[in-house]
Amino acid sequence: MITKIWSDLPTFREVEFGVAMNVVLADTNADSEETESTNGLGKTTLLRIIHFCLGSDFAKERTLSHPDLYDTTFSLACNERDIYFEVHRNTARPKIVSVTWHFVADLSLEFERDGDLAIMSVEEWRYALSARLVPEARLPDEPMKFNPSFRSLSYYLIRLGKEAFAEPQTAFKNQSGLSRRIDTSFLLSLNWPIQRQLHALQETRASVNAALRAVANAAEADNENSIGDLEADRVLLEEALAKREKEVSEFNLREDYHELETRLQAVDTKIHELLNDNHADGRLLTYYQESAQETPLFDANEPVEILRDAGALFRPEALRSLKEVADFHRQIYANRKQFLAAEITRLNDRIKIRNAGIAHESAVKSAILKTLSSSGALDALIALQRGASELTLKLEALKARIEDRKRFDRRKDELTRDISQARTLLKQDLDDRRATIDEAIVLFGDYTRFLYGVPGKLGVDVNREGYQFSFAIDRMGSDGVDQMVVFCFDLVVATLRARRGGSFLSLVHDSSMFADVDPRQYGLALQLACRVSEAEKFQYVCCLNVGALPRDHLGDLDLEPYIKLRLSDDGDAGRLLGKRLRPRES
Fold this sequence. Notes:
Layout (H helix, E strand, L loop, with lengths): L1 E6 L7 E2 L3 E8 L15 H11 L19 E8 L2 E8 L2 E8 H4 L6 E4 L2 E5 H12 L16 H8 L19 H11 L4 H30 L5 H24 L6 H36 L9 H8 L6 H58 L4 H55 L1 H19 L4 E7 L2 E7 L8 H19 L6 E4 L9 H18 L2 E7 L17 E6 L18
Parallel strand pairs: 3-12, 3-13, 11-12
Antiparallel strand pairs: 1-2, 1-4, 4-5, 5-6, 6-8, 7-8, 9-10
């Protein structure tokens, strides 16, 4: 518990606390609500100093980071199970903490020793606080993610800010639902590791669902309607690939394939040349044959008869000349006939020779074609292999898509099963811890009955997200009921921690806890806190305003003996810091 708070600021009002009831009283007639400006006397600032010394995030601190408090060291002393330690933290060096060496000596931390002090980072200090003050929140061989830490739990024990007094499970602004459930279950001694496991499973399932949605969107873009469609595509691809691989395996590769192709082209050219020559000789042969069949029409007497009919008279010498002409023509015809016969014979012989060449070249061509049809070239084989590789890649990509969708589906089913099992285990564990829960329910009922005459209800159940807590007081018409629900819950937690031998048995309430509360319930709450803290032997610190004290409802409670620090608005000396902070420049 906290025993002392002080500072190297010369004007600071040092304060010491003891067990049971401790009162910080602001002696003012107005309820000066503490803000981040300079209006308050220092009640809330005192709580901020406690959090600062216990490792709070200085980047979010507005009051202690004020320029007027630069290079100010605040110190806090605690006594935990007869182990006394001090911690010092300076606003100019907020990332460094000095703490009593023996408090952290046996922990696995990085620090430098300076006499009786250990100098360490604020992160190491937070770890040390969790290890020392809430060791049951550390699971062996597991990371600290989602584990309760002393930092998060301290906001329940030392509530700060309006949000902290609106609802029992909420200790600070923007607190996650997981943090509320885990911290509350830890404070009530429930099975928070299963709650953490359930959340981790739900987070993983959410990621899987997101992946499934992404896969579904991609499938929709590719017109993939279902896994069945993909499987059908897979079968067709496998069949096409098998055929292509068979072609590759049966392919007869010839190294002289291109040489054979060249020879085939040469044979084709030769055959075409022979055919063209035969065609030309054939037409000439036909002409010669037709010419050889013609009969000469020349008659040697025909010219003489024509001339005689015309009245011509010939001498014997002239008639002899005509006969010689006729004989000349007969000789020319005979010579022509001999020439045609020789040419016809020559052309027939040439055509026969070419036909034999055509037959030979055709036989060569057939042999080459047969060879080519039963084998292939290297580039043809490469083309077949490339086609097989492309089909293989398509098939593997398709199988990967199918496997991804199946894997995500299987993982989702597994997670759904594991989540269901975790919930079942959480419910069974809740039944096993019924005595512990019943103790908290009874305490909450007793404390709320003391305030309102009827018992309130603290409900603990398991829903889809894990533990579900409910708090109710049947006096909704009264002012400040929400604050009193928080007050009773905090008192229940402090009682249970004291009974179970917990560490840091301190409960600190700011004056905001009692703002707007009916005077009767306000007075009864102070009486209850005093009685319970003394009976259960834990420390209760409350910051109160004189002007709002329910003097007529305090019963036999005399607050005077419990006042550890009296603040006053009568001059700066009465303030916690001993001075008024200047307004910040905007």
